[in-house]
Amino acid sequence: MVSRTNKFRGRSRYHGRGKKAGRGAGKRGGRGNAGINKHRLMTRLKYMPGHWGMHGFNRHPSLRNVNISINMQEVQTLADGDSINLGEMGYDKLLGKGRIDRAIHITVAEASARAIEKVEAAGGSVTVGGDEWEEE
Question: What is the pTM of this model?
Answer without folding.
Answer: 0.52
